[in-house]
Design brief:
The chain is of the alpha/beta class. Among the domains are: 1-108, Serine Threonine Protein Phosphatase 5, Tetratricopeptide repeat, CATH 1.25.40; 110-190, Serine Threonine Protein Phosphatase 5, Tetratricopeptide repeat (Alpha Horseshoe), CATH 1.25.40; 195-274, Serine Threonine Protein Phosphatase 5, Tetratricopeptide repeat (Alpha Horseshoe); 546-603, no CATH class; 616-738, 2-Layer Sandwich (Nucleotidyltransferase, domain 5), CATH 3.30.420; 758-945, Rossmann fold (3-Layer(aba) Sandwich), CATH 3.40.50.1460. 63% of the residues lie in helices and 8% in strands. It is built from 39 helices and 16 strands. It has a six-stranded mixed β-sheet with strand order 8-7-9-13-14-15, sandwiched between helices. Strands 4-3-2-5-6 form a five-stranded mixed β-sheet. The chain has a three-stranded antiparallel β-sheet with strand order 10-11-12. Helix 34 (771-781) links the parallel strand 7 (758-762) and strand 8. The protein is elongated. This is CHAT domain-containing protein. InterPro entries: CHAT_dom, TPR-like_helical_dom_sf. Residues 595-615 are annotated as: Disordered.
């Protein structure tokens, strides 16, 4: 019989319309009270597992019950249909169906079941943001239920469900303690009714409340238990909902990879179920997780998606959550005006729905925005309001952040100390790593103000260790970079604290931490801790998967940008490129969450003395100061260049204005050449006096002219070899190379001989017609050179290279300042991004990127991310790159001269310096000869594998 009924259901679902389905029911003899009861049970069983099928069957039940004159059956069917419709996001439609079902029950005198329909009404009101309305409905049911009479078991079930729904409504209103009590009562009631799935729902709800109260570990335990029960019961909807909330718990605990994996799992399940409302909440949670990881663009994009869906579904409260998350992402990215607009919209929503907790969180963000805008009165008012509301509500996690913000903004040391003590209590309760990290950094700053250097170093050392532990588990370089960048304050403060303390070994230890801050992700890529290399990488993988399609769209957009000769439509194409870059980044991170990185690694700071290496100057920016480390053999000395950074930034901007003038045409440049040269040398002279001259005493007696420079922050934009001392540029007396970290071994790079592999890839175009001549001239210097010109060039040509090969790439370049990993070079018929390069295998190669701006890193990242960084991550021993738009003719001359020296066995840094001196002899303006620098790979011995 069961098999026959199952076949009937399949026939009903396959019928073309409602009339045909009714005919099948009549033919099967099931158009009666018992038949409809069976069919309604089938609907209820499918609401969470197959909602589309449940809707079809529910509509059939309503029609059949009406034809048979069975109002009780029609009422049940209509209420079931309302549940399905609500899950699909049609909330107003669901309210209408619920009201109709309630009247049908009352028409047959069943007040208990009529009251039960108010459960659905409460849920829909919550989804619409009318939480006070939901509370009123629930309380009215509890008052009315004792007088309703009828089945006592049914009444008990309704009472338990009302307590559950009241818990949800109070949760939305920020009253989490009340919610916990209601869920506990509901759990007891359901246990007495022997309903294990309902018991699991209350356990899951308690987990959600514990999360809101900052008790993430306890919440995770409740949610895991509930999820297991739902999975056993086959309730796919609640299994997925638990996964989404578990992701929230993992995010609070700093377990970002686990959070992203669970969100993908929940999202796929909810999408299959058609549970639009819950899927919207997954998007909000993913946006929050990206925000925690420091992926601000990705967070804002995911929040935008959630906002659009919330508006379509009229889910105002969820729209408020999404807007608050987007505002936080924009504020973190420095988009102050945009953040203010989103914040105003979120505050309006929270005021309208009466959510005190998230209104207070919005006030906290408003205080941060006011601080950035310099509005002291607005900052004080918003922060005071947030602190009062959060303390009164007992919402510990946002309260902890509010206290830390109070520490940042208060000028009273005692007040700051009291706020830190209260924050300490909260951290001990909630155990949130990000909050613990923020507390440690602020305690350290207070200690530094008191001159307690040992305590400062200890606190910051613990904070850095937290970052290292959390960061080492993130498998994707984009995710790891973003996370580390958002936690760089601890590294910067620790470098500063060690230099200020100045005990034996402190300068060398500070230098090690500085190195780690500048190149940890790069080192992890080079050593294979994260990423992949040598396989069929992203540059060759354009299949039907979403990532492949997005990459193909991005390359097409780059092609349009690269070929654009004017401004027409340029802004639209740039916006499309930015959107696709964010999408690709997000998809890579989500794909990476499905695996774990092998063995965690760390920098071994326990050995403070650097190994023998060439002399170097390593800079570290902190506040307005620049700390310079001069390494000579095994010794390290420091100089603090006090207050120079604002002036350095201004001079760098002046210098880049100089380079831009050369784009005005040869007529302008020839006419103003002498004035341009004089102005440029004045700027380079000022930079020399600020960042180089104070170090000369430490360099006076060096036995070599070779020196490695390790820039930091804005200093990556300084052409050190062009700095001018009043009579000569540094290149006239020094052989300079650049490195991501302090060298601890020879860094001159390969000195090739003709037997080694030499590959020359060139893509000429109308703006750079001499590229082909450059490629042929370089090829003639090496008898074994393979020269590829035009459409045949690709990264695939580089496969199978022997170590210490030479790779010369001459083509058009595109610098993406906001998304530096997507800076690109044109190879063949497509653009190759820095993300693509990460998948290549260039171990030991010398790579030259003879392309405009190929060496520019993005601003704001912890590491100098860009094309040079990507090629080093792919294993190159060194990269010759440019900092600005270069001249075609002088680049040809410089490159050929450099390779002439390399072919004679000269190391790359000295070969490049010789070529620059030659070009400068008849083109003295640094624009012509100073754009290129040699960047060497970092030494991998700064890593230690832990057992």
């Amino acid at each position: 019989m069961t098999q026959q009924l199952d076949l009937l259901v399949e026939d009903l679902l396959g019928a073309p319309d409602l009339g045909a389905r009714l005919g099948l029911l009549r033919a099967a003899g099931t158009v009666d009270r018992e038949g409809l009861l069976w069919l309604e049970d089938e609907v209820e069983a499918r609401i969470h597992t197959a909602p589309a099928r449940a809707r079809t069957l529910a509509e059939l039940c309503v029609r059949a019950a009406e034809e048979l004159g069975l109002p009780r059956s029609a009422a049940r069917a209509e209420y079931l249909l309302a549940r399905v419709v609500a899950e699909a996001g049609d909330l107003e439609g669901a309210l209408g169906l619920i009201a109709s079902a309630r009247e049908r029950y009352r028409s047959v005198g069943d007040e208990v079941l009529a009251l039960r329909t108010d459960l659905g009404r409460m849920q829909v009101l919550d989804d619409l943001g009318d939480h006070r309305g939901a509370v009123e409905v629930g309380n009215r049911v509890l008052r009315t239920l004792p007088q309703a009479g009828g089945d006592r078991v049914a009444a008990a079930a309704v009472e338990a469900a009302v307590m559950c729904n009241l818990g949800v409504a109070h949760s939305f209103l920020g009253d989490h303690e009340t919610s916990l009590g209601l869920y506990a009562r509901a759990e007891t009631a359901y246990a007495g009714l022997h309903q294990p799935v309902q018991v699991a729902q209350q356990r899951a709800n308690q987990g959600i409340e514990l999360l809101a109260l900052g008790q993430a570990r306890e919440a995770r335990a409740r949610l895991c238990s509930a999820r297991a029960e739902f999975a056993r019961a086959g309730d796919h909807l609640w299994t997925a909902k638990c996964a989404a909330h578990l992701a929230d718990a993992h995010q609070h605990l700093g377990e970002l990879v686990d959070a992203l994996a669970l969100l993908d799992e929940a999202g796929s399940e909810l999408e299959d179920l058609g549970a639009t409302a819950e899927l919207l909440r997954v998007h909000v949670q993913r946006a929050r997780t990206y925000l925690s990881a420091g992926l601000f663009d990705e967070s804002a994009a995911e929040a935008d998606r959630a906002i659009a869906e919330a508006q379509e579904l009229s889910m105002g409260h969820d729209e408020g959550f999404a807007r608050l998350t987007k505002a936080a992402a924009q504020l973190s990215a420095g988009l102050l005006v945009e953040a203010g607009v989103e914040l105003d919209a979120a505050i309006d929503i929270f005021d309208r729905v009466g959510d005190r907790q998230f209104r207070a969180s919005a006030d906290l963000l408003r205080a941060e925005l006011a601080d950035r805008l310099g509005d002291d009165d607005a900052r004080h008012e918003a922060l005071s309001r947030a602190l009062g509301a959060l303390e009164a509500g007992g919402w510990l996690i946002p309260l902890g952040w509010a206290l830390l913000k109070h520490v940042d903004l208060s000028e009273d040391a005692g007040e700051r100390s009291r706020a830190l003590d209260r924050a300490d209590e909260i951290v001990a309760t909630v155990g949130v790593p990000a909050l613990r990290h923020g507390l440690a950094v602020r305690r350290a700053r207070l200690s530094a103000e008191r001159g307690a250097h040992h305590e400062t170093v200890r606190l910051l050392g613990d904070a850095v260790a937290d970052v290292q532990r959390s960061g080492s588990g993130l498998p994707d370089p984009i995710l790891r970079l973003a996370f580390r960048t958002s936690h760089m304050a601890a590294f910067d403060d620790l470098v500063d604290a060690l230099v200020r303390r100045g005990t034996d070994g402190d300068p060398a230890r500070a230098l090690r931490y500085s190195d780690d801050a500048k190149a940890r992700t790069l080192l992890d890529l080079i050593t294979g801790t994260i990423g992949s290399r040598g396989g069929d990488g992203a540059v060759e993988r354009d299949g039907d998967d979403r990532l492949g399609r997005s990459m193909a769209d991005l390359r097409s957009t780059y092609a349009v940008l690269g070929d654009s000769a004017g401004e027409d439509g340029l802004a639209d194409h740039l916006a499309r490129a930015e959107r696709l870059e964010t999408e690709v980044s997000s998809l890579r991170v989500r794909a990476a969450s499905s695996f774990r990185v092998p063995g965690p690694r760390r920098a071994h700071h326990d050995d403070p003395a650097p190994d023998e290496g060439p002399p170097s100057i390593s800079y570290h920016c902190h506040g307005q100061d620049v700390i310079a480390f001069v390494s000579r053999g095994s010794g390290v000395v420091t100089e603090r260049l006090v207050g120079v950074l604002p002036r350095v930034r201004h001079l760098i901007d002046d210098l880049e204005s100089q380079w831009a003038r050369f784009q005005l045409g040869s007529g302008f440049v020839d006419h103003h050449h002498d004035a341009l040269l004089l102005t440029c040398r004045a700027v380079l002279g000022d930079l020399h006096d600020l960042v180089w001259a104070p170090l000369r005493t430490h360099l006076a007696d060096l036995a070599t002219a070779e020196l490695v420079v390790v820039p930091h922050g804005p200093l990556h934009r300084v052409p050190f070899h062009a700095l001018f001392d009043g009579t000569a540029h540094l290149v006239d007396g020094w052989i300079l190379s650049v490195a991501p970290t302090t060298p601890r071994a020879a860094v001159a790079g390969p000195a090739p001989v003709p037997a080694r592999d030499v590959r020359v890839l060139a893509v000429p175009d109308v703006r750079s017609p001499l590229i082909a001549d450059e490629a042929r001239a370089i090829g003639e210097l090496f008898p074994n050179a393979a020269v590829h010109i035009g459409r045949g060039t690709s990264l695939g040509v580089l496969r199978g290279l022997g170590e210490q090969a030479i790779v010369h790439v001459a083509c058009q370049g595109m610098f993406r300042p906001d998304n530096p990993l997507f800076s690109a070079i044109r190879m063949g018929d497509h653009w190759v991004t820095g993300v693509d390069v990460l998948e290549a295998d260039l171990r030991g190669a010398l790579v030259t990127l003879s392309a405009c701006e190929s060496g520019r890193p993005g601003a704001g990242a912890a590491e100098p991310v860009g094309l040079a960084w990507s090629f080093l991550a792919a294993g190159a021993a060194g990269v010759v790159v440019s900092q600005w738009l270069v001249d075609d003719a002088t680049t040809l001359e410089l490159m050929v001269e450099m390779y002439r020296h390399i072919a004679d066995g000269e190391p790359t840094p000295s070969a490049l310096a010789a070529a620059q001196r030659l070009v400068a002899s008849h083109h003295p303006h640094p624009y012509h000869w100073a754009a290129f620098s040699y960047v060497s790979a970092p030494p991998v011995r700064t890593l230690e594998v832990l057992p």
